[in-house]
TrEMBL record:
<dbReference type="GO" id="GO:0007200">
    <property type="term" value="P:phospholipase C-activating G protein-coupled receptor signaling pathway"/>
</dbReference>
<keyword id="KW-0067">ATP-binding</keyword>
<dbReference type="InterPro" id="IPR017438">
    <property type="entry name" value="ATP-NAD_kinase_N"/>
</dbReference>
<keyword id="KW-0346">Stress response</keyword>
<dbReference type="GO" id="GO:0004143">
    <property type="term" value="F:ATP-dependent diacylglycerol kinase activity"/>
</dbReference>
<keyword id="KW-0808">Transferase</keyword>
<comment type="similarity">
    <text>Belongs to the eukaryotic diacylglycerol kinase family.</text>
</comment>
<dbReference type="InterPro" id="IPR000756">
    <property type="entry name" value="Diacylglycerol_kin_accessory"/>
</dbReference>
<protein>
    <recommendedName>
        <fullName>Diacylglycerol kinase</fullName>
        <ecNumber>2.7.1.107</ecNumber>
    </recommendedName>
</protein>
<dbReference type="InterPro" id="IPR001206">
    <property type="entry name" value="Diacylglycerol_kinase_cat_dom"/>
</dbReference>
<keyword id="KW-0418">Kinase</keyword>
<feature type="domain" description="DAGKc">
    <location>
        <begin position="34"/>
        <end position="187"/>
    </location>
</feature>
<dbReference type="Pfam" id="PF00781">
    <property type="entry name" value="DAGK_cat"/>
</dbReference>
<comment type="function">
    <text>Phosphorylates the second messenger diacylglycerol (DAG) to generate phosphatidic acid (PA), another important signaling molecule. PA is required for plant development and responses to abiotic stress and pathogen attack. May be involved in the accumulation of PA during cold stress.</text>
</comment>
<dbReference type="Pfam" id="PF00609">
    <property type="entry name" value="DAGK_acc"/>
</dbReference>
<dbReference type="GO" id="GO:0016020">
    <property type="term" value="C:membrane"/>
</dbReference>
<dbReference type="InterPro" id="IPR037607">
    <property type="entry name" value="DGK"/>
</dbReference>
Length: 486
């Protein structure tokens, strides 16, 4: 058995001289042309309670220690920058093993959706040659990213056989592109109080201060704070984000109570009740409904904004990239042919440059997702979406990006809080045969007319706008525990 496993693992081993610059080439290290599926593994050792640490040990026992990284010790941008610099150097020297490794390299990331999104953002930022596809190990609470691509949503086994089984799936997985989305948030600098309108630690890790490099930067507006970041799965606002915020606040206060995935999910459900999500018509003031807080605009065709009418009863809105939300539900569903004809709605492809916008009245409305063809209120599919909040009865709302919530102040004077979401680019993912995500280019996916390409619009944006912000500018404060990314 050990010999059989050793032969199997040779598919994944990376030559030492590729992993460590200036090390000697061992001609007997690799059989044939090179590894069939060379992998780099990134593990958030503090995700999933003790599971992250145990998984790290198992991967290091099966693969070379230098190809398995603890994200608590070294950030992915540093790792990938170092290894790809070495690969490029070896490629210039004509090293065939390096060329082979670069062309076939795959990445594995184990952690929550926040951890996975971090790695995806780094790969997007670094613009690597032969950008490697990524497999995600479900090691968080929601695990929407792994579930969307067929890797499951339950925390995995950490024993040797479980890891070998996962590696076998990575070997057989197919590549699929995925859209990513840039989020810009702007608000006026407050006239009184502290400099920042939001305490730094209250913002998601994927949002951070936007440092302008010149006066000509089109995003540079004097007297404003501008934040930007990105997401892969969803941006949501309203009551669902409020429940998520309550959950994260409770976990921050009592981390010892949140070591088990089932306990986490049970606590989340209880908070949905205590926050009034199931009795929203009685407990949720009408001024908190989306339509009463601000205006929503969408861009369906390049350069043309139009107002989006939001039903007055909608208390939560979700801008969805993947068909997996709140633990695996698909709020958009698959529109039938009549819907396609009447409103031009299409299935939720993950690589079509469109984001799906869905509304919910309350948690009872959300229960329709349990039905085979259940879905939320479909509002729009768009290339961009913009929220504009003006002074009103509500002084705050709740927002969430890929599972990370925050409490968002709303204008108290004649100011505007702006949130704009736009298409950012694509990265490569690995998907199993159980993948829920569908490509518009996959012959087995439901057919629809290809979205119109418009490269000119993105080319007109400043380079800083297009940068995802996960590599050089992505900094986790020293006082923040990386476990919060799970």
């Amino acid at each position: 058995m050990a010999s059989r496993n050793s032969e199997f693992l040779k598919n994944f081993w990376i030559p030492n001289h590729v992993l460590v610059p200036d090390s000697k080439v061992d001609d007997g290290e690799i059989d044939g042309d090179g590894p069939k599926c060379p992998v780099l593994v990134f593990v958030n050792s503090k995700s999933g309670g003790q599971l992250g640490g145990e998984l790290l040990k198992t991967y290091r026992s099966l693969l070379k220690e230098k190809q398995v990284f603890d994200l608590g010790e070294e950030t992915p941008d540093k790792v990938l920058s170092r290894i790809y610099a070495n690969l490029e150097n070896l490629k210039v020297q004509g090293d065939q093993l390096a060329i082979w490794t670069m062309e076939r390299l795959r990445l594995i990331v184990a952690g929550g959706d926040g951890t996975a999104g971090w790695l995806l953002g780094v790969v997007c930022d670094l613009k690597l040659s032969h950008s490697p596809p990524i497999a995600t190990v479900p090691l968080g609470t929601g695990n929407n990213l792994p579930f969307a691509f067929g890797w499951g949503k339950k925390n995995p086994g950490t024993d040797e056989q479980s890891v070998l089984s996962f590696l076998d799936k990575v070997l057989k997985a197919k590549e699929m592109k995925i859209d990513n989305w840039h989020l810009l948030m702007r608000m006026k600098t407050p006239k009184h109080g502290t400099c920042d309108p939001i305490a730094p630690l209250e913002l998601p890790h994927s949002l951070h201060a936007f440092h302008r490099v010149s006066e000509s930067d089109e995003l540079n507006i004097e007297g404003c704070h501008t934040f930007r970041g990105g997401f892969w799965n969803y941006f949501s606002m309203g009551m669902d984000a409020q429940v998520s915020y309550a959950f994260h606040s409770e976990r921050k206060l009592h981390p010892e109570k949140f070591k088990n995935q089932l306990v986490n999910q049970s606590t989340y459900a209880k908070l949905g009740c205590t926050q009034g999500w199931f009795l929203a018509s009685l407990t949720h003031p009408p001024n908190r409904n989306i339509a009463h807080m601000g205006k929503v605009k969408v861009m369906k065709t390049p350069g043309h904004w139009e107002d989006l009418e939001i039903p007055s009863s909608i208390r939560s809105i979700v801008c969805l990239n993947l068909p997996s939300f709140s633990g695996g539900f698909n709020p958009w569903g698959t529109p039938n042919k009549r819907r396609h004809r009447d409103r031009a709605f299409t299935p939720p492809f993950v690589d079509d440059g469109l984001i799906e916008v869905v509304g919910f009245r309350d948690a009872w409305h959300g229960l329709v997702l349990l039905a085979p063809n259940g879905h939320g209120t479909r509002l729009a599919q768009a290339k961009r979406i913009r929220f504009e909040f003006h002074k009103g009865a509500a002084d705050h709302t709740y927002m969430r990006i890929d599972g990370e919530p925050w409490k968002q102040p709303l204008p108290v004077d004649d100011d505007t809080v702006l949130v704009e979401i736009s298409h950012h680019g694509q990265v490569n993912m690995l998907a199993t045969h159980e993948s829920k995500s569908k490509s518009m280019y996959d012959p087995s996916s439901p057919h629809h007319n290809d979205a119109e390409d418009d490269d000119n619009e993105e080319d007109s944006l400043a380079d800083e706008f297009r940068k995802f912000g996960a590599a050089d500018t992505f900094k986790i404060p020293d006082e923040v525990d990386i476990a919060h990314l799970s």
